Amino acid sequence: MLRILAFLLVVLAAGIGFAWLADNPGSVTFVWQGQQVATSLMVFLIGLGVLIFAVLLVVWLVRAFFKTPGAIGNWWSTSRRDRGYKALSSGIIAAGAGDAVLARRMTKRSDKLLGTRREPLIRFLDAQTAMIEGDHARARSAFEQMERDPETRLLALRGLFLEAERVGDESAARHYAERAVRIAPHVPWAGGAVLESKCLAGDWDGALAILEAQKNTRLVDRDESKRMRAVLLTAKAMTLSERDPAGAKTAGLEAQKLAPDLPPAALVAAEALFRLGDLRRGSKVLETSWISQPHPDIAEAYVHARPGDSPEDRLKRARKLHGLHSGAEAEMCLARAALDAGEFDLARKSAMAAADAEPRESTYLLLADIEEAQTGEVGRVREWLGRAIRAPRDPAWTADGVVSRNWAPISPVTGRLDAFEWKVPVERIGDGDGPMIDAHDGEADHGPAKTIGAEAKTPESTAPAAVPAATPAPAKPAASEPAKPATPPAANSGGTGGAATQPAATDAMKPAEPRKPEAVDPPKETKPAPTSEERKEARFG
Fold first, then answer.
1. Can you give the residue ranges of every domain in the chain?
2. What backbone torsions phi and psi does residue 217 show, to the nearest 5 degrees?
3. How far apart are CA 179 and CA 184, in angstroms?
4. Mean of pLDDT over the chain
5. C-alpha 122: how far from chain center
6. What predicted TM-score, i.e. pTM, was given to this entire model?
Protein backbone atom coordinates (compact mmCIF):
# COMPACT_ATOMS: atom_id res chain seq x y z
CA MET A 1 0.00 0.00 0.00
CA LEU A 2 2.82 2.40 0.83
CA ARG A 3 4.52 1.65 -2.44
CA ILE A 4 1.38 2.53 -4.34
CA LEU A 5 1.07 5.80 -2.47
CA ALA A 6 4.72 6.64 -3.17
CA PHE A 7 4.30 5.88 -6.86
CA LEU A 8 1.22 8.08 -7.05
CA LEU A 9 3.06 10.90 -5.30
CA VAL A 10 5.97 10.68 -7.78
CA VAL A 11 3.58 10.73 -10.75
CA LEU A 12 1.73 13.67 -9.22
CA ALA A 13 4.97 15.57 -8.66
CA ALA A 14 6.09 14.89 -12.23
CA GLY A 15 2.76 16.10 -13.60
CA ILE A 16 2.90 19.23 -11.51
CA GLY A 17 6.48 19.85 -12.65
CA PHE A 18 5.72 19.46 -16.34
CA ALA A 19 2.65 21.70 -15.98
CA TRP A 20 4.75 24.39 -14.30
CA LEU A 21 7.36 24.16 -17.06
CA ALA A 22 4.61 24.47 -19.68
CA ASP A 23 3.30 27.59 -17.97
CA ASN A 24 6.78 29.04 -17.53
CA PRO A 25 8.75 28.24 -20.69
CA GLY A 26 12.42 29.12 -20.77
CA SER A 27 15.50 28.66 -22.91
CA VAL A 28 18.92 27.15 -22.46
CA THR A 29 21.97 28.48 -24.34
CA PHE A 30 25.26 26.57 -24.83
CA VAL A 31 28.46 28.26 -26.02
CA TRP A 32 31.21 25.85 -27.06
CA GLN A 33 34.27 26.80 -29.21
CA GLY A 34 32.62 29.96 -30.43
CA GLN A 35 29.42 28.16 -31.33
CA GLN A 36 26.22 29.14 -29.61
CA VAL A 37 23.35 26.69 -29.31
CA ALA A 38 20.02 27.77 -27.88
CA THR A 39 17.08 25.45 -27.09
CA SER A 40 14.04 25.37 -24.87
CA LEU A 41 14.21 24.07 -21.34
CA MET A 42 11.79 21.19 -22.07
CA VAL A 43 13.91 19.92 -24.96
CA PHE A 44 17.02 20.19 -22.85
CA LEU A 45 15.54 18.07 -20.08
CA ILE A 46 14.31 15.40 -22.47
CA GLY A 47 17.71 15.22 -24.14
CA LEU A 48 19.45 14.93 -20.78
CA GLY A 49 17.21 12.03 -19.79
CA VAL A 50 17.92 10.20 -23.03
CA LEU A 51 21.66 10.70 -22.58
CA ILE A 52 21.62 9.29 -19.05
CA PHE A 53 19.60 6.23 -20.16
CA ALA A 54 22.07 5.59 -23.02
CA VAL A 55 25.04 5.72 -20.67
CA LEU A 56 23.44 3.31 -18.21
CA LEU A 57 22.56 0.90 -21.03
CA VAL A 58 26.13 0.85 -22.26
CA VAL A 59 27.48 0.22 -18.77
CA TRP A 60 25.03 -2.73 -18.24
CA LEU A 61 25.99 -4.29 -21.58
CA VAL A 62 29.68 -4.12 -20.75
CA ARG A 63 29.19 -5.69 -17.32
CA ALA A 64 26.96 -8.42 -18.72
CA PHE A 65 29.56 -9.27 -21.31
CA PHE A 66 32.24 -9.86 -18.70
CA LYS A 67 29.91 -11.75 -16.28
CA THR A 68 28.39 -14.15 -18.82
CA PRO A 69 30.99 -16.98 -18.41
CA GLY A 70 30.56 -16.98 -14.65
CA ALA A 71 26.78 -16.96 -14.94
CA ILE A 72 26.89 -19.89 -17.31
CA GLY A 73 29.13 -21.82 -14.87
CA ASN A 74 26.83 -21.09 -11.93
CA TRP A 75 23.81 -22.23 -13.88
CA TRP A 76 25.52 -25.49 -14.77
CA SER A 77 26.61 -26.09 -11.18
CA THR A 78 23.15 -25.32 -9.85
CA SER A 79 21.56 -27.63 -12.37
CA ARG A 80 24.02 -30.41 -11.46
CA ARG A 81 23.34 -29.92 -7.77
CA ASP A 82 19.58 -29.97 -8.26
CA ARG A 83 19.79 -33.17 -10.29
CA GLY A 84 22.02 -34.70 -7.60
CA TYR A 85 19.62 -33.88 -4.79
CA LYS A 86 16.71 -35.15 -6.85
CA ALA A 87 18.54 -38.45 -7.35
CA LEU A 88 19.34 -38.59 -3.61
CA SER A 89 15.70 -38.00 -2.72
CA SER A 90 14.56 -40.69 -5.16
CA GLY A 91 17.13 -43.09 -3.70
CA ILE A 92 15.96 -42.54 -0.11
CA ILE A 93 12.36 -43.08 -1.17
CA ALA A 94 13.34 -46.26 -3.03
CA ALA A 95 15.28 -47.53 0.00
CA GLY A 96 12.26 -46.89 2.20
CA ALA A 97 10.10 -48.82 -0.25
CA GLY A 98 12.58 -51.72 -0.34
CA ASP A 99 13.57 -51.21 -4.02
CA ALA A 100 17.26 -52.11 -3.77
CA VAL A 101 17.91 -51.86 -7.53
CA LEU A 102 16.61 -48.31 -7.87
CA ALA A 103 18.19 -47.29 -4.57
CA ARG A 104 21.62 -48.54 -5.70
CA ARG A 105 21.29 -46.77 -9.06
CA MET A 106 20.27 -43.52 -7.39
CA THR A 107 23.15 -43.89 -4.91
CA LYS A 108 25.70 -44.04 -7.73
CA ARG A 109 24.06 -41.18 -9.59
CA SER A 110 23.88 -38.90 -6.55
CA ASP A 111 27.47 -39.74 -5.64
CA LYS A 112 28.54 -38.79 -9.19
CA LEU A 113 26.64 -35.51 -9.14
CA LEU A 114 27.26 -34.53 -5.50
CA GLY A 115 30.52 -36.31 -4.72
CA THR A 116 32.53 -33.11 -4.56
CA ARG A 117 30.12 -31.63 -2.03
CA ARG A 118 30.69 -34.51 0.45
CA GLU A 119 26.98 -34.91 1.12
CA PRO A 120 26.59 -37.12 4.28
CA LEU A 121 23.21 -38.45 3.16
CA ILE A 122 24.91 -40.30 0.32
CA ARG A 123 26.70 -42.57 2.83
CA PHE A 124 23.44 -43.04 4.70
CA LEU A 125 21.69 -44.06 1.48
CA ASP A 126 24.58 -46.41 0.70
CA ALA A 127 24.21 -48.04 4.14
CA GLN A 128 20.45 -48.39 3.79
CA THR A 129 20.81 -49.91 0.34
CA ALA A 130 23.40 -52.38 1.62
CA MET A 131 21.04 -53.46 4.41
CA ILE A 132 18.26 -54.04 1.88
CA GLU A 133 20.62 -56.09 -0.29
CA GLY A 134 21.73 -58.12 2.73
CA ASP A 135 25.31 -56.84 2.58
CA HIS A 136 25.59 -56.11 6.31
CA ALA A 137 29.38 -55.84 6.23
CA ARG A 138 29.14 -52.97 3.77
CA ALA A 139 26.40 -51.40 5.85
CA ARG A 140 28.54 -51.50 8.99
CA SER A 141 31.45 -50.02 7.04
CA ALA A 142 29.26 -47.15 5.85
CA PHE A 143 28.00 -46.48 9.38
CA GLU A 144 31.58 -46.50 10.71
CA GLN A 145 32.51 -43.89 8.12
CA MET A 146 29.50 -41.81 9.12
CA GLU A 147 30.55 -42.05 12.77
CA ARG A 148 33.72 -40.03 12.01
CA ASP A 149 31.58 -37.10 10.95
CA PRO A 150 30.10 -35.18 13.94
CA GLU A 151 27.09 -34.28 11.84
CA THR A 152 26.10 -37.92 11.26
CA ARG A 153 27.61 -39.55 14.39
CA LEU A 154 24.30 -40.08 16.17
CA LEU A 155 22.70 -41.54 13.05
CA ALA A 156 25.67 -43.87 12.62
CA LEU A 157 25.44 -45.05 16.23
CA ARG A 158 21.80 -45.95 15.75
CA GLY A 159 22.65 -47.94 12.63
CA LEU A 160 25.46 -49.77 14.42
CA PHE A 161 23.13 -50.40 17.39
CA LEU A 162 20.51 -52.00 15.16
CA GLU A 163 23.16 -54.12 13.43
CA ALA A 164 24.48 -55.31 16.81
CA GLU A 165 20.97 -56.22 17.91
CA ARG A 166 20.40 -58.08 14.64
CA VAL A 167 23.38 -60.37 15.24
CA GLY A 168 22.61 -60.70 18.97
CA ASP A 169 25.71 -58.88 20.20
CA GLU A 170 24.23 -57.39 23.38
CA SER A 171 27.50 -55.93 24.65
CA ALA A 172 28.11 -54.05 21.39
CA ALA A 173 24.51 -52.83 21.29
CA ARG A 174 24.81 -51.59 24.86
CA HIS A 175 28.12 -49.87 23.98
CA TYR A 176 26.62 -47.96 21.05
CA ALA A 177 23.51 -47.02 23.06
CA GLU A 178 25.61 -45.66 25.94
CA ARG A 179 27.70 -43.59 23.51
CA ALA A 180 24.51 -42.21 21.97
CA VAL A 181 23.16 -41.31 25.43
CA ARG A 182 26.31 -39.33 26.20
CA ILE A 183 25.89 -37.39 22.95
CA ALA A 184 22.10 -36.90 23.12
CA PRO A 185 20.38 -37.96 26.38
CA HIS A 186 17.00 -36.99 24.95
CA VAL A 187 17.05 -39.68 22.21
CA PRO A 188 14.35 -42.26 23.06
CA TRP A 189 15.93 -45.35 21.50
CA ALA A 190 19.26 -44.85 23.24
CA GLY A 191 17.79 -44.03 26.63
CA GLY A 192 15.36 -46.94 26.44
CA ALA A 193 18.07 -49.39 25.39
CA VAL A 194 20.43 -48.32 28.18
CA LEU A 195 17.61 -48.46 30.73
CA GLU A 196 16.69 -51.96 29.59
CA SER A 197 20.30 -53.15 29.75
CA LYS A 198 20.67 -51.74 33.27
CA CYS A 199 17.52 -53.55 34.35
CA LEU A 200 18.63 -56.85 32.82
CA ALA A 201 21.96 -56.54 34.61
CA GLY A 202 20.25 -55.76 37.93
CA ASP A 203 21.90 -52.33 38.13
CA TRP A 204 18.91 -50.59 39.65
CA ASP A 205 20.86 -47.49 40.73
CA GLY A 206 22.12 -47.04 37.17
CA ALA A 207 18.59 -47.53 35.83
CA LEU A 208 17.30 -44.90 38.25
CA ALA A 209 19.98 -42.47 37.03
CA ILE A 210 18.99 -43.07 33.40
CA LEU A 211 15.33 -42.57 34.29
CA GLU A 212 16.15 -39.29 36.04
CA ALA A 213 18.01 -38.08 32.94
CA GLN A 214 15.04 -39.01 30.76
CA LYS A 215 12.74 -37.13 33.13
CA ASN A 216 14.92 -34.01 33.01
CA THR A 217 14.90 -34.07 29.20
CA ARG A 218 11.13 -34.65 29.24
CA LEU A 219 11.55 -37.92 27.39
CA VAL A 220 8.91 -39.46 29.67
CA ASP A 221 5.97 -37.67 31.21
CA ARG A 222 5.55 -37.13 34.92
CA ASP A 223 3.09 -39.92 35.66
CA GLU A 224 5.03 -42.50 33.66
CA SER A 225 8.24 -41.44 35.35
CA LYS A 226 6.70 -41.89 38.81
CA ARG A 227 5.44 -45.36 37.95
CA MET A 228 8.76 -46.48 36.47
CA ARG A 229 10.68 -45.09 39.42
CA ALA A 230 8.38 -46.96 41.81
CA VAL A 231 9.02 -50.22 39.92
CA LEU A 232 12.79 -49.69 39.96
CA LEU A 233 12.78 -48.83 43.66
CA THR A 234 10.72 -51.94 44.37
CA ALA A 235 13.23 -54.07 42.48
CA LYS A 236 16.07 -52.42 44.40
CA ALA A 237 14.33 -53.08 47.71
CA MET A 238 13.82 -56.72 46.80
CA THR A 239 17.55 -57.01 46.08
CA LEU A 240 18.46 -55.39 49.43
CA SER A 241 15.83 -57.23 51.47
CA GLU A 242 18.12 -59.93 52.85
CA ARG A 243 21.42 -58.10 53.37
CA ASP A 244 20.26 -54.53 54.00
CA PRO A 245 16.78 -54.29 55.53
CA ALA A 246 17.22 -50.57 56.27
CA GLY A 247 18.01 -49.78 52.63
CA ALA A 248 15.15 -52.01 51.51
CA LYS A 249 12.82 -50.14 53.86
CA THR A 250 13.83 -46.74 52.44
CA ALA A 251 13.46 -47.83 48.83
CA GLY A 252 10.22 -49.73 49.48
CA LEU A 253 8.55 -46.86 51.33
CA GLU A 254 9.43 -44.41 48.55
CA ALA A 255 8.11 -46.85 45.95
CA GLN A 256 4.89 -47.35 47.90
CA LYS A 257 4.44 -43.60 48.15
CA LEU A 258 4.98 -43.13 44.41
CA ALA A 259 2.64 -45.99 43.44
CA PRO A 260 0.13 -46.91 46.18
CA ASP A 261 -1.57 -49.33 43.75
CA LEU A 262 1.61 -51.42 43.34
CA PRO A 263 1.26 -54.30 45.86
CA PRO A 264 4.89 -55.55 45.57
CA ALA A 265 6.15 -52.17 46.76
CA ALA A 266 4.07 -52.36 49.93
CA LEU A 267 5.01 -56.00 50.46
CA VAL A 268 8.76 -55.43 50.25
CA ALA A 269 8.52 -52.33 52.45
CA ALA A 270 6.45 -54.18 55.06
CA GLU A 271 8.82 -57.15 54.98
CA ALA A 272 11.77 -54.87 55.65
CA LEU A 273 9.92 -53.19 58.51
CA PHE A 274 9.03 -56.58 59.98
CA ARG A 275 12.69 -57.59 59.81
CA LEU A 276 13.59 -54.42 61.65
CA GLY A 277 10.98 -55.17 64.35
CA ASP A 278 8.60 -52.34 63.42
CA LEU A 279 5.40 -54.37 63.27
CA ARG A 280 3.06 -51.41 63.69
CA ARG A 281 4.46 -49.37 60.80
CA GLY A 282 4.73 -52.43 58.56
CA SER A 283 1.08 -53.24 59.20
CA LYS A 284 0.15 -49.64 58.47
CA VAL A 285 1.91 -49.84 55.09
CA LEU A 286 -0.04 -52.99 54.23
CA GLU A 287 -3.31 -51.41 55.31
CA THR A 288 -2.70 -48.39 53.09
CA SER A 289 -1.93 -50.60 50.12
CA TRP A 290 -4.94 -52.79 50.83
CA ILE A 291 -7.29 -49.79 50.78
CA SER A 292 -5.80 -48.63 47.48
CA GLN A 293 -5.54 -52.05 45.77
CA PRO A 294 -6.80 -55.20 47.57
CA HIS A 295 -4.49 -58.09 46.75
CA PRO A 296 -4.30 -61.63 48.17
CA ASP A 297 -0.56 -61.29 48.84
CA ILE A 298 -1.23 -58.19 50.92
CA ALA A 299 -3.83 -60.07 52.93
CA GLU A 300 -1.52 -63.04 53.42
CA ALA A 301 1.34 -60.84 54.64
CA TYR A 302 -0.94 -58.86 56.94
CA VAL A 303 -2.62 -61.85 58.55
CA HIS A 304 0.70 -63.68 59.09
CA ALA A 305 2.67 -60.60 60.14
CA ARG A 306 3.47 -62.16 63.54
CA PRO A 307 4.74 -65.72 63.15
CA GLY A 308 3.75 -66.69 66.69
CA ASP A 309 0.10 -65.64 66.41
CA SER A 310 -2.62 -68.16 67.15
CA PRO A 311 -5.39 -68.86 64.62
CA GLU A 312 -7.68 -66.66 66.69
CA ASP A 313 -5.20 -63.78 66.48
CA ARG A 314 -4.94 -64.21 62.71
CA LEU A 315 -8.74 -64.20 62.48
CA LYS A 316 -8.81 -60.95 64.42
CA ARG A 317 -6.37 -59.36 61.97
CA ALA A 318 -8.41 -60.69 59.05
CA ARG A 319 -11.53 -59.09 60.52
CA LYS A 320 -9.71 -55.77 60.72
CA LEU A 321 -8.58 -56.04 57.11
CA HIS A 322 -12.12 -56.94 56.09
CA GLY A 323 -13.39 -53.79 57.76
CA LEU A 324 -10.96 -51.58 55.82
CA HIS A 325 -12.09 -52.70 52.35
CA SER A 326 -14.84 -55.13 51.46
CA GLY A 327 -14.95 -57.28 48.36
CA ALA A 328 -14.08 -60.73 47.11
CA GLU A 329 -10.47 -60.61 48.32
CA ALA A 330 -11.54 -59.44 51.77
CA GLU A 331 -14.11 -62.25 52.00
CA MET A 332 -11.54 -64.83 50.91
CA CYS A 333 -9.05 -63.58 53.50
CA LEU A 334 -11.65 -63.75 56.25
CA ALA A 335 -12.83 -67.19 55.13
CA ARG A 336 -9.30 -68.66 55.21
CA ALA A 337 -8.58 -67.22 58.63
CA ALA A 338 -11.93 -68.45 59.97
CA LEU A 339 -11.27 -71.93 58.60
CA ASP A 340 -7.89 -72.06 60.35
CA ALA A 341 -9.53 -70.89 63.57
CA GLY A 342 -12.31 -73.48 63.33
CA GLU A 343 -15.07 -70.90 62.75
CA PHE A 344 -16.71 -72.96 60.02
CA ASP A 345 -19.97 -71.03 59.81
CA LEU A 346 -18.13 -67.74 59.37
CA ALA A 347 -15.76 -69.33 56.88
CA ARG A 348 -18.64 -70.71 54.82
CA LYS A 349 -20.52 -67.42 54.93
CA SER A 350 -17.50 -65.41 53.79
CA ALA A 351 -16.56 -67.93 51.10
CA MET A 352 -20.09 -67.94 49.72
CA ALA A 353 -20.05 -64.13 49.67
CA ALA A 354 -16.78 -64.25 47.71
CA ALA A 355 -18.29 -66.76 45.28
CA ASP A 356 -21.30 -64.52 44.73
CA ALA A 357 -19.11 -61.45 44.16
CA GLU A 358 -16.41 -63.06 42.01
CA PRO A 359 -16.73 -66.79 41.29
CA ARG A 360 -13.38 -68.39 40.54
CA GLU A 361 -11.41 -71.57 41.05
CA SER A 362 -9.79 -70.78 44.40
CA THR A 363 -13.15 -69.81 45.92
CA TYR A 364 -14.68 -73.21 45.26
CA LEU A 365 -11.51 -74.99 46.38
CA LEU A 366 -11.80 -73.13 49.66
CA LEU A 367 -15.47 -74.13 49.95
CA ALA A 368 -14.41 -77.73 49.38
CA ASP A 369 -11.91 -77.42 52.22
CA ILE A 370 -14.58 -75.92 54.47
CA GLU A 371 -17.05 -78.67 53.58
CA GLU A 372 -14.47 -81.34 54.28
CA ALA A 373 -13.47 -79.84 57.61
CA GLN A 374 -17.01 -79.12 58.81
CA THR A 375 -19.14 -82.02 57.55
CA GLY A 376 -16.81 -84.49 55.87
CA GLU A 377 -19.48 -85.26 53.24
CA VAL A 378 -17.51 -86.63 50.30
CA GLY A 379 -20.27 -85.97 47.80
CA ARG A 380 -20.51 -82.31 48.69
CA VAL A 381 -16.73 -81.98 48.61
CA ARG A 382 -16.64 -83.46 45.13
CA GLU A 383 -19.40 -81.14 44.04
CA TRP A 384 -17.37 -78.10 45.07
CA LEU A 385 -14.34 -79.55 43.31
CA GLY A 386 -16.37 -79.96 40.14
CA ARG A 387 -17.38 -76.33 40.35
CA ALA A 388 -13.74 -75.35 40.83
CA ILE A 389 -12.85 -77.16 37.63
CA ARG A 390 -15.52 -75.30 35.69
CA ALA A 391 -14.92 -71.93 37.32
CA PRO A 392 -12.91 -69.10 35.77
CA ARG A 393 -9.21 -69.04 36.48
CA ASP A 394 -7.78 -66.94 39.28
CA PRO A 395 -5.80 -63.78 38.50
CA ALA A 396 -2.04 -64.11 38.39
CA TRP A 397 1.01 -62.06 37.55
CA THR A 398 1.16 -62.19 33.76
CA ALA A 399 3.61 -60.63 31.30
CA ASP A 400 3.95 -61.37 27.57
CA GLY A 401 2.12 -64.70 27.94
CA VAL A 402 4.18 -65.82 30.96
CA VAL A 403 2.37 -66.59 34.22
CA SER A 404 4.38 -66.21 37.40
CA ARG A 405 3.66 -66.89 41.04
CA ASN A 406 5.76 -63.87 41.97
CA TRP A 407 5.94 -60.35 40.61
CA ALA A 408 9.07 -59.30 38.74
CA PRO A 409 10.16 -55.81 37.62
CA ILE A 410 10.88 -56.85 34.03
CA SER A 411 9.42 -59.33 31.58
CA PRO A 412 11.40 -62.57 31.26
CA VAL A 413 10.55 -62.64 27.56
CA THR A 414 11.15 -59.11 26.28
CA GLY A 415 12.95 -57.44 29.17
CA ARG A 416 10.27 -54.73 29.24
CA LEU A 417 10.03 -52.77 32.49
CA ASP A 418 6.80 -53.00 34.49
CA ALA A 419 5.41 -55.68 32.20
CA PHE A 420 3.68 -57.87 34.83
CA GLU A 421 -0.02 -57.29 35.37
CA TRP A 422 -2.38 -58.84 37.91
CA LYS A 423 -5.05 -60.34 35.69
CA VAL A 424 -6.65 -63.59 34.63
CA PRO A 425 -4.24 -65.45 32.32
CA VAL A 426 -5.34 -65.86 28.73
CA GLU A 427 -6.68 -69.29 27.92
CA ARG A 428 -4.80 -71.18 25.22
CA ILE A 429 -6.72 -73.13 22.63
CA GLY A 430 -5.79 -76.78 22.86
CA ASP A 431 -3.13 -76.16 25.49
CA GLY A 432 -4.00 -75.62 29.09
CA ASP A 433 -0.48 -75.16 30.44
CA GLY A 434 1.01 -71.85 29.45
CA PRO A 435 4.47 -70.68 30.47
CA MET A 436 4.85 -70.33 34.19
CA ILE A 437 7.64 -69.37 36.55
CA ASP A 438 7.61 -71.64 39.56
CA ALA A 439 7.85 -70.27 43.05
CA HIS A 440 10.99 -70.77 45.13
CA ASP A 441 11.51 -74.21 46.57
CA GLY A 442 10.27 -74.57 50.09
CA GLU A 443 7.76 -71.71 49.87
CA ALA A 444 4.29 -72.40 51.15
CA ASP A 445 1.51 -71.96 48.66
CA HIS A 446 -0.77 -69.18 49.77
CA GLY A 447 -3.47 -67.30 47.96
CA PRO A 448 -3.05 -67.16 44.22
CA ALA A 449 -0.08 -69.50 44.27
CA LYS A 450 -2.49 -72.39 44.64
CA THR A 451 -4.38 -71.28 41.59
CA ILE A 452 -1.27 -70.91 39.50
CA GLY A 453 -0.15 -74.37 40.42
CA ALA A 454 -3.53 -75.68 39.31
CA GLU A 455 -3.41 -73.80 36.04
CA ALA A 456 -0.31 -75.59 34.95
CA LYS A 457 -2.08 -78.90 34.51
CA THR A 458 -4.08 -80.23 31.61
CA PRO A 459 -7.71 -81.27 31.89
CA GLU A 460 -6.63 -84.91 31.63
CA SER A 461 -4.76 -84.66 34.90
CA THR A 462 -7.99 -83.79 36.69
CA ALA A 463 -9.69 -87.02 35.74
CA PRO A 464 -9.14 -88.72 39.12
CA ALA A 465 -11.37 -86.08 40.72
CA ALA A 466 -14.24 -86.79 38.40
CA VAL A 467 -15.51 -89.92 40.18
CA PRO A 468 -19.23 -90.75 40.00
CA ALA A 469 -21.17 -89.68 43.04
CA ALA A 470 -22.37 -93.20 43.65
CA THR A 471 -18.87 -94.47 44.36
CA PRO A 472 -18.78 -95.67 47.95
CA ALA A 473 -15.44 -94.13 48.88
CA PRO A 474 -13.19 -91.47 47.45
CA ALA A 475 -10.27 -92.54 45.38
CA LYS A 476 -6.85 -92.39 46.93
CA PRO A 477 -4.22 -90.08 45.45
CA ALA A 478 -3.38 -91.42 42.04
CA ALA A 479 0.16 -90.11 41.87
CA SER A 480 1.57 -93.45 40.73
CA GLU A 481 -1.13 -94.12 38.16
CA PRO A 482 -1.04 -92.09 34.95
CA ALA A 483 -4.20 -90.18 34.14
CA LYS A 484 -6.18 -91.42 31.19
CA PRO A 485 -7.96 -88.95 28.93
CA ALA A 486 -11.17 -90.90 28.95
CA THR A 487 -14.59 -89.30 28.91
CA PRO A 488 -16.56 -90.06 32.10
CA PRO A 489 -19.82 -91.96 31.64
CA ALA A 490 -22.96 -89.96 31.11
CA ALA A 491 -24.67 -91.67 34.03
CA ASN A 492 -22.72 -89.71 36.62
CA SER A 493 -25.30 -88.26 38.95
CA GLY A 494 -23.05 -85.40 40.07
CA GLY A 495 -22.34 -84.14 36.59
CA THR A 496 -18.77 -83.23 37.53
CA GLY A 497 -17.07 -85.89 35.51
CA GLY A 498 -18.03 -84.52 32.13
CA ALA A 499 -17.15 -81.04 33.16
CA ALA A 500 -13.59 -82.01 34.04
CA THR A 501 -12.48 -81.76 30.47
CA GLN A 502 -14.43 -78.64 29.50
CA PRO A 503 -14.66 -75.53 31.73
CA ALA A 504 -18.03 -73.83 31.94
CA ALA A 505 -17.83 -70.55 33.74
CA THR A 506 -21.54 -69.97 33.53
CA ASP A 507 -22.34 -73.02 35.62
CA ALA A 508 -20.13 -71.75 38.39
CA MET A 509 -22.48 -68.83 38.93
CA LYS A 510 -25.42 -71.06 39.84
CA PRO A 511 -25.83 -72.47 43.38
CA ALA A 512 -25.38 -76.18 43.69
CA GLU A 513 -28.35 -78.46 43.89
CA PRO A 514 -28.08 -80.79 46.88
CA ARG A 515 -27.47 -84.41 46.03
CA LYS A 516 -29.86 -87.13 47.00
CA PRO A 517 -28.92 -88.74 50.29
CA GLU A 518 -28.87 -92.18 48.82
CA ALA A 519 -26.39 -91.06 46.21
CA VAL A 520 -23.89 -89.50 48.55
CA ASP A 521 -24.22 -91.46 51.77
CA PRO A 522 -21.19 -93.71 52.09
CA PRO A 523 -21.63 -97.29 53.31
CA LYS A 524 -20.89 -98.25 56.85
CA GLU A 525 -17.34 -99.31 56.15
CA THR A 526 -15.87 -96.29 54.41
CA LYS A 527 -12.37 -95.14 54.13
CA PRO A 528 -11.51 -91.81 55.71
CA ALA A 529 -11.98 -88.75 53.52
CA PRO A 530 -8.81 -87.56 51.85
CA THR A 531 -7.14 -84.51 53.23
CA SER A 532 -6.95 -81.23 51.37
CA GLU A 533 -3.38 -81.84 50.27
CA GLU A 534 -4.14 -85.39 49.11
CA ARG A 535 -7.15 -84.24 47.19
CA LYS A 536 -5.20 -81.47 45.43
CA GLU A 537 -2.43 -83.93 44.63
CA ALA A 538 -4.97 -86.34 43.17
CA ARG A 539 -6.49 -83.61 41.03
CA PHE A 540 -3.37 -81.90 39.79
CA GLY A 541 -0.68 -84.55 40.08
1. 396-440
2. -90, 5
3. 9
4. 78
5. 36
6. 0.62
